[in-house]
Specification:
The protein has about 220 residues and is mainly alpha-helical. It is built from 11 helices and no strands. It has one domain. Helix 3 crosses helix 10.
Length: about 220
């Protein structure tokens, strides 16, 4: 009985191991994101390691995170800087509409709500960008242009992903003092994978789809 309990294949051990991986990967993401401009490569590494090691059960989650972070560091910083500038511009627009809505005129209130809905489009591009970077070799311009094209080609799926990402970011920022930062980032990456992986598979090079030999982990 005790032998079975301490078996690494025991469901309890598997569950606690999975929770530990979620905690550690989330902490690694937080630490690697502290310089702000590295949020992009950290997010790409988190998505890559969560999908590969937690969803598809490959080994070496922490090693995968670090290798993906190093690999995507340079283009990831470039994408992050561009998206941060865009975020500042969009935030200025939100502040403007909020101040205008404060005048009490109904039209400005409607425009403010409309602006918030429209913000889901750039959020969808952002949500797609770093997972895309984690899977395919792209330049900064390639990541942004491809993310934009994928957003419009798969609009309902990408809008849903943007909504999930927005909720997770909001919950994490509002509930950081409850320790949600230790769970939500990795859970967010896993949730996004169910929306984004079917899209990425459609654009996987044909030679990687060929039968024969062991299939890549993301095609199993």
């Amino acid at each position: 009985m005790f032998q079975n309990f301490f078996n690494s294949e025991n469901p309890v051990f598997r569950f606690t191991g999975r929770v530990l991986d979620i905690l550690v990967l989330s902490v690694m993401w937080v630490v690697c994101s502290l310089p702000i401009v590295t949020i992009g490569p950290a997010s790409a590494a988190l998505y890559y390691s969560c999908v590969k090691c937690l969803r598809y059960k490959e080994g070496g989650a922490y090693r995968s995170f670090l290798s993906a972070f190093k690999l995507n560091l340079k283009p990831g910083i470039g994408v992050t800087v561009v998206l941060l500038v865009l975020a500042v511009v969009l935030d200025a627009g939100y502040v403007f509409f909020t101040m205008a809505a404060g005048t009490g005129e109904q039209l400005w209130g409607i425009l403010r709500i409309t602006y918030l809905v429209v913000l889901l489009l750039p959020m969808a591009v952002l949500t797609c960008a770093f997972p895309l970077l984690s899977r395919f070799a792209c330049t900064v311009g390639g990541v942004l242009s491809t993310s934009l094209r994928l957003t419009f080609r798969h609009l309902p799926r990408l809008i849903a992903a943007a909504a999930v990402n927005t909720v997770c970011i909001f919950v994490t920022l509002k509930g950081w003092y409850y320790g949600l930062m230790l769970l939500v980032p990795a859970l967010d990456a896993l949730a996004l994978s169910y929306l984004l992986e079917p899209v990425f598979r459609r654009y996987t090079p044909e030679e990687e789809n060929a039968d024969g030999g062991e299939r890549p982990w993301y095609l199993r």
